[in-house]
Structures are given as C-alpha cells and as structure tokens.
Amino acid sequence: MISAPSASAVLSRLAALLPPGRLLVEPAQLASYASDGLTAFEARPLAVAVPENADEVIALVRFCHAEKLPFVARGSGTSLSGGSLPIKEGIVIALNRLNRILRIDPEQRLAVVEPGVINTHVTVAAAPHGLHYAPDPSSQSICTIGGNIAFNSGGAHCLKHGMTSNHVLGLKAVLATGEVVEWGGKSREQVGPDWCGLFVGNEGLFGIALEVTLQLLPKSESFHTVLVGYRSLEQAGDAVSAIVASGLLPGAIEIMDALALEAAVQAVHADYPPGCEAVLIVELEGPRETVAAERVRLDEIIAASGAVEARPAKDAAERLAIWKGRKSAFSAVGRLSPDFIVQDGVVPRRRLGEALRRINEWSRETGLRVANVFHAGDGNLHPLILYDGRQPGGLERAEALAGRILRMCVEMGGSITGEHGVGVEKRDYMPDMFNADEIDCLKRLAAAFDPLGIANPGKMFPAAGAPALTQHGLHPLEKAGVISRE
C-alpha cells in the first residue's frame, strides 16, 4: 500500500509530465474510470492521465517503469471481462484523445491510425475509396482500435474475414519497459517472427499501441441477408452446422434467442417472425454472380432445416434494420434486467445445438434467465445471464452459471474466450484450459515484455492456489484489496 505522502509525491511528479488539467485526481473525476463494461467490479485508481499524443504516452509509461507504478491503458472502457479495470495503487492512461486517422492509402488499401480511433470511424474514412475495415464488434460505434488490438476483437463478420489479428499489418508501440518498438509494415510478407501477431490479444500486458497500420478491404459488390425463424434454439444451431458443412462461407451467421429478440424489439422496434424461439441471420457477400449462385444453395439448406419462416432483406434499408436489432442486443437486455453477465465461450460448430440445449436446461434449473446472442459461424457463444445484484447472492449465482458454461466449452474442445479476453472475470478458469507448464510459459512471455509486472497487473493469470471465482465468495483480487464489488 502506498502511503498518502508517497502517493502525493508521485502524483506531483506525474502531473509535471502533462499540461494542467490533464491529470485527473478528484473522486468525481475518477468515478467514471472505476469500472469498465464488467460493472460488477470496481476500483478507484490513484489518478487518470489524459495524454494527447504518442510522446506523452511514452513519457507516462517510462515514468511508471522508473517508479514501479502500475498502469492500465484504457480507451472507451467497453471491455466485458474487466480487462481495463483499474488498479487501486496505479494509474489509468486514457487514450481517447489519441484519435487521429493519420493516413488512408487507397492504393495500398491500408489505414494508419492512433489507438483511440473509434472502430467505425475507420470505415467512414475509407468509404469514399470503396473500402472498409472488416472487424465489426457489436460495440463498434464506440470501441477503439487500441482496445480491439488488446483483446483481438472479432464481430459478426469474423467468420469470413477473421479477427483483428488478421487485419493488423504494422504496429508502433511503447512496451512496459519504456522501449519503443516498430513491427510489421505495409505488407503481410515480413521476414522473421510475427511480432504484430504476438502483440494483438496481449490484453494490455505488454504495453500500449501508439500507431496501427490496418488492412482495408474493398466493399462487397452484393449482399444477400436473410432472417430465418425457428421453433427451437437447437434447430437454429443445427442449421448453422448444415450451412457450414455445405461448403458455403457466408460473411456472417448469427443467432438470437427469444429473450434477446424480446429485448431488441423493445429497444429498437426490430421486426422478427412471430412465435419463434430463435432467429438465424445469414449474410452472403461478394460479386453479384457468386452471391446469386450461393443464394440458391442457401435457400435449399434453409428449406430443409425446419425453419418456420425465412425473410430475405429486400433492400439496403431492410438489411440495416436486421443488423440494427442484432447489434443492439447486448445493451437492449438492460431493459429486461437490472444486471447481467455476458459470457464469451467457444464450442465446436458441430456441438452448437447441444451446447444451447444444455444452457437452456441450466437456466431452468437455476431460475436464471439467459438470453443467447452469438456469432454462430465460429461457435462463439454470448449467453447473457440476467440477475438482480440487489438480491443477496444474486451475482454469485449468476457467476456460478457462467462458470458451468465456460467449463462446458472447454470440455467440448472449445475455449473460455473468443473475443472478450480473459481479463479479471475468467482468469481463474485458465487452469481448466491450460496446464501448469503452459501457464508458466505464458507468464514468462509476459515478463519478457514487462519484467516489473506493472502493465495491467492482476489480469489474465490466476493467482497461485486461488479458487475459481464461482466457487467461493471473494475473488482473489478482492481479498488483496485491489478491487471491490459494487
């Protein structure tokens, strides 16, 4: 614990690195940074530093290294795993003002951006050139490229186009040691280790990206988006397996269950087939001739899948309406429950139907409603577990169900996370997926970039001998006084 006089002295030296007004220390100022998208946990940092350029970020990181002061880099704070949760004795480095698109190169089909650039702003800037940025997480209208890199974000169209790691060509970053590195470039054809690939998905444990070179893709000439209703969630899951097994590669395949549909209808007045327990969204994209041929095959598969109704989008407006309902689902669930946990496990596609059936059984068994919204094409489940945190034991029961779902994913040959990261929430499930030697290897890799352990400490790796979050009352970080529950 840093004593009050020591903390005051550190903050005084820290303030000298920034112009007046850009080191936030007042309780009211810090409150906005106490939690990220995982609001069940909060921690009040010593201060929030607000740099406006790369040189200021570098100076802050070098100060933290010299002072052995923990820091957490943060963009819009949309992490759903507690990945940008502050450290009580550390600082937050807020990157939102590093929001410049430095260059769009239509000939090379790339964009060079700062970490605080909003995801959708890249596509808006590229659109006049007939290009777009493919990764499209549901929070794309607010999440930043720096956060997307930290957690290797995907989105609805990751089935065809891949994750963030597939679209990062080059990086300039400051490591936790204060060293500035430049990796990659304008092309994927690089000699030597893929340092960019290693950095993407590091969850802030290596350092902070300063400039990012992103691959842009041409806009698709044609789209065919269809909304398909099913009487059961398992039927919808089986339809996904059939589509992928056919050899088709849609741009996106998404599923929403009845509870998620109810929320979307209330929030954005989405229009879905009545009386369905689930809907499937399938989108084909590409050259007109290719989409026309694939549409015939898709129609045959849907007709044989037991669908209640299929509604192809007649125009761009109907396509956007379908996606508006899907993209709003996470926030819309807030209309149905005061609190919810979003999980992020992955299962093999062939076992989607089975996984959904088990989640529904556990939902009935525990009395906790679960809204299922997920990237069905790559088996990335996003069950939203609804609970009331005002009720004694409400959060713990929701966490227990979340834990069962994660362990099911591992047992089925999947993963505890697809794109939300491990963060705080899933760190004690790492031993379910990796053995001790593998976790030790990961820790040694992180230590190579951050020997002092000051970059986003307490994330990803389980505490030695710590029980799983869902098995005991207190999280290990709570016991250490690093975080608290609301």
Keywords:
Uridine Diphospho-n-acetylenolpyruvylglucosamine Reductase, domain 2, 20% strand, 486 residues, 17 helices, alpha+beta
Summarize this entry quickly.
With 486 residues, the protein is α+β, with helices and mostly antiparallel strands.
Question: What does this entry look like structurally?
Answer:
This protein is an alpha+beta fold and 486 residues long. Among the domains are: 4-94, 2-Layer Sandwich (Uridine Diphospho-n-acetylenolpyruvylglucosamine Reductase, domain 2), CATH 3.30.43; 221-413, FAD-linked oxidases, C-terminal domain (Vanillyl-alcohol Oxidase, Chain A, domain 3). It has helices spanning 4-15, 27-31, 54-67, 119-126, 145-151, 158-161, 195-199, 233-245, 258-268, 288-303, 316-327, 329-332, 352-366, 394-411, 430-433, 436-449, 476-479, and strands at 23-24, 41-42, 47-49, 71-74, 91-94, 101-105, 110-113, 131-132, 168-175, 180-184, 207-215, 217-218, 222-230, 252-257, 278-286, 309-312, 339-342, 370-375, 383-387, 484-485. The strands form 5 sheets. Strands 16-13-15-14-18-19-17 form a 7-stranded antiparallel sheet, with helices on both faces. Helix 8 runs antiparallel to helix 13 and helix 13 (352-366) packs antiparallel against helix 14. The radius of gyration is 23 Å and the shape is globular.
